[in-house]
User: Which sequence fits this backbone?
């Protein structure tokens, strides 16, 4: 059940990113994939510091999932923005 929740958190973070107004350099498909990967990585990292955490994901894993999803989507957007702002190389 928790894995479904982490996947939904990643999808919601990407959906929020896509729906926010403004210029986006990251496409929707990339945002969804990176959001889900960030949510899973954040959940695993958040539960890794608790004894038996990977066996039973808890509230810390959910918080890590949210931070991981939002952070990874926003980090990719900032990296793509910096790449586009640099212009052509050479």
Assistant:
């Amino acid at each position: 059940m928790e894995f479904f929740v982490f996947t939904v958190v990643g999808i919601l973070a990407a959906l929020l990113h896509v729906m926010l107004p403004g210029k986006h350099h990251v496409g929707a498909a990339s945002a969804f994939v990176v959001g889900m990967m960030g949510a899973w990585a954040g959940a695993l990292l958040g539960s890794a510091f608790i004894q038996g955490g990977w066996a039973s994901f808890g509230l810390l894993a959910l918080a890590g999932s949210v931070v991981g999803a939002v952070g990874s989507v926003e980090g990719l957007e900032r990296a793509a923005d910096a790449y586009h702002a640099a212009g052509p190389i050479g």
